[in-house]
Every structure is written in structure tokens, then in C-alpha cells.
Specification:
Blueprint (H helix, E strand, L loop, with lengths): L8 H9 L5 E2 L4 E6 L3 H18 L4 E5 L2 E6 L10 H11 L4
Antiparallel strand pairs: 1-2, 2-4, 3-4
Helix pairs in contact: 2-3
Length: 97
């Protein structure tokens, strides 16, 4: 079972600095992606789903037309940011946008 310990503020600050496409919003990592059109947004969501499933960690997702917002937090850690969130953010950044 993966470690679900919340990251310390120092470790979290370092992790966020290494994830330029993500921002810390309270106790979550958040990224908004703007795609060319609605079908591209839906295709992106499918790719996100497969990557998330591989990681056994699933983001909160919001979609409005061409804009997709991903929010990562670990519910088992009291809705705080863990290494699992950082690892999934890195993996999602490797998707072709």
C-alpha cells in the first residue's frame, strides 16, 4: 500500500516548484488545461482516466467545453497532498497536450 502521509510544507514547496504547470490551492494540486475543442477535451479526459487508473489514484475533474481542471488530493490522508498526488501530477504532465 502506498504511503499516504501528507507532505511537509518544505517538501511540498519543492515538489510544486518542480511542477510548473500545477499550483497549490490549499491542500490540493490544481492544473487547468485548455484544449482546441470539446472532442479534444473529452479525449484528454479519457487519457487522464487511464493514467490515473494505472496509478490507483484518481483526480477530481471539472470540464467546461474546452477547459479541463484537475485537482489532486489524497482522501486517505485527510484530503491533504501526498507523494501519490505529486507522482500522478508528474505522470499527467507527460500526456501530450
Amino acid at each position: 500500500m502506498p504511503d499516504v502521509s501528507p507532505l511537509s510544507d518544505a517538501v511540498l514547496a519543492e515538489a510544486v516548484a518542480a511542477l510548473p504547470n500545477w499550483e497549490r490551492h490549499g491542500d490540493a494540486l490544481v492544473r487547468t488545461v485548455e484544449l482546441d475543442d470539446f472532442p479534444a477535451a473529452m479525449a484528454f479526459l479519457v487519457r487522464v482516466g487511464f493514467v490515473a487508473e494505472q496509478h490507483g489514484h484518481h483526480p477530481e475533474i471539472a470540464n467546461v467545453y474546452t477547459r479541463v481542471t484537475l485537482r489532486l488530493t489524497t482522501h486517505d490522508a485527510g484530503n491533504r497532498i501526498t507523494e501519490n498526488d505529486v507522482a500522478l501530477a508528474r505522470a499527467l504532465d507527460r500526456l501530450a497536450f
